[in-house]
Design a protein that fits this description.
Blueprint lengths: L1 H7 L1 H33 L19 H4 L2 H9 L1 H6 L3 H9 L12 H15 L13 H28 L1
Helix pairs in contact: 2-7, 2-8, 4-7
The chain binds heme C.
The site of heme C (HEC) has 26 residues, from α4 and α6.
């Protein structure tokens, strides 16, 4: 019995590994998709991502350009940054010809989702044309999982031969 188990332990271990590999990118993709919806409804009136300035600045590359803590505050409470005379906020205000970004009605969770979405538009941008980049991790992991499944299949197949 124990030797039997010793032979078979790689199967459950690989299975668990696969589930973990699957869940991580799915969670990221879900957050980015939720963020995309929030962006469309709460931000797109004033911002584009890579299509130029509207009322507010083009947000392409903003997660690389700005520090994470600052970005959260700019999205959640842009008025406070201006009140505190934050140098970047003041410069943005000047560039926007004194039009202030009104503080959106947005929860901390939604802020994180929007940031995940903004990030997803930057990562892997030009890798595959036509596939929204937030789905890329899922696709890549699916391919890896299929590969692992094939290996498991081969291992199980070989076990049967061993028994005979
Ligand atoms: C009514 C128009 C308006 C809406 C709606 C709006 N913004 Fe803004 N946003 C601006 C303006 C104007 C600025 C620049 C002046 C300032 O910071 O107040 C700005 C600045 C920013 C910046 C700083 C950009 C940089 O280059 O550092 C970020 C990030 C940003 N907005 C994100 C968002 C997000 C995310 C939302 C949706 C939750 C949103 N904005 C909704 C008008 C808007």
């Amino acid at each position: 019995m124990t030797t039997e188990f010793a032979k078979r332990w790689p199967l459950p271990v690989l299975g668990i590994l696969m589930m973990v590999l699957y869940l991580v990118p799915i969670k990221q993709a879900t957050a980015a998709t939720a963020g995309q919806e929030i962006f469309q409804s709460k931000c797109a009136a004033c911002h584009t991502i890579g299509k130029g300035k509207l009322v507010g600045p083009d947000l392409a590359g903003v997660t690389a350009r700005r520090e994470a803590g600052w970005l959260k505050r700019q999205i959640k409470e842009p008025d406070r940054l201006i009140e505190e005379k934050d140098p970047i906020a003041l410069q943005l205000l000047q560039e926007a010809e004194d039009v202030e970004m009104p503080p959106p009605e947005i929860s901390d969770e939604e802020v994180m989702a929007v940031i995940a979405y903004l990030k997803s538009t930057e990562k892997l941008k030009n890798v595959v044309v036509g596939v929204p980049s937030q789905y890329m991790p899922t696709i890549i992991i699916s391919i890896i999982a299929l590969f692992i499944l094939t290996i498991i299949g081969l291992m199980v197949g070989r076990k049967k031969v061993d028994v005979r």
